What does this fold into?
Amino acid sequence: MKMWSGRFRQPLDPEFERWQRSFPFDRRLLKYELEASRAYARALRKVEVLSAEELASILFGLDQIAEKAAASTSFLEDEEAEDVHDFVEKQLTALIGDVALKLHSGRSRNEQIATDLRLYARESIDHLRSFLTDLAEVLLARAEQAGDAAMPAYTHLQRAEPVLVAQWLLAYVEMFLRDAERLGDCRRRVNLCPLGSGAVAGSTLALDRDAMTADLGFDAPTANSIDATSDRDFAGEYVNSLSLLAVHLSRWAEEMILFATQEFGFVHLPEAFSTGSSAMPQKKNPDLLELTRGKAGRIVGDATALTVSTKGLPLAYNKDLQETQEPLFDASETALALVPLATEWMKAVAFDYTRMQKAAESGFMNAFAAATYLTGKGVPFRLAHEQVGKAVQLCLEKNCELQDLSIEELRQFSPAFDRDVYLRLTVESVLAIHDVPGGTAPERVKQAITEAKQRISAMRGVVHAHA
It folds into this structure.
């Protein structure tokens, strides 16, 4: 018998019935459905809908369902359950009899699914923030290991200026810490309790919503029953946050793919995360990185699907909202699988510091430093820029670097050049002049590493508090 069948005289069309079921994907919410049902049962006891014995029986039955699910995946193979709520009611009734049917007193599936999804999103956020903290920690450790090794930084994918390898890695630390912070901010709006909202107008029972909220670890009850039963903003915000995380992972993957090519040769792919070619024996392919890049598009697509599913819905609950679940599950579970793999890849990768350093010493990446040198001699920067640009042109004709030009050749372009300019054109000097907070000067990078450690430690404390 369906949970709603009293008003109907004809059975559902069999094809439609199979097509509209959500249990094949919302059964992953069983843990949260049981958790919310326990809290609701305790609230029903407080308003004397349940006796103490009935409460004990229901709680026992819910625990039995959890144990059965943990013991065998086949337990969840139910071809008839419409959704996870229907499944739990069927199983509970089979275990404890008709007293199970009292659990739905004053309750609606509309508030149940809203509660389950919030519990799912909250736990997923907590796991992801922990994983992102791990990733940031590994990136930071690799930055410390890099020491004073230099590499080219790029703009427009052309060599721009030398930077410390450590600073390059710290750029990713910043991205992933922002993702963790963004998810933490999202968590505040996720962590509200819809129980007691009923189908749309609020429960008909005088339930203690604050008690249910505390029981489930939420921060507060939702403020409006109409909004609570139809709101999926929290899911949209969460998945959109994941889409930014996916973009960062994709950028990281793309750069590592480029740097692992023979043309760059900065990175040696870890074999544990690579595969070969079935045709070309010499190949080592960056499969983890390429799949990361590909799955980023999938997460961005989930964010779009979820947003479009809700864009035209009148208040309050509509069956369309069932279509928000799979994008939420897919994006969340894809990200939860990706981040730990990226962390392990970063632990295993080897950097060719020698090749990076050599690349940082060529390609006129000291040109800006040369212009800065002239500016320090009183030459207006725009003139200095033009004069150094002409010197670069001469170098291209002679197939040499700026530091290879004689002082007489440099003075063709500006009389302000003196012999001390050569000291300013070394990689070490070019790095050192970027001596501002956030810059690549070695002392600034050491300071940034210390500050990043503090931020990661603080994030770890918050994550543990939510565990």
About this structure: The chain has three domains: 5-105, 110-358, 359-450. The beta strands are 150-155, 158-164, 192-193, 220-221, 267-268, 350-351. The two ends are 40 Å apart (CA to CA).
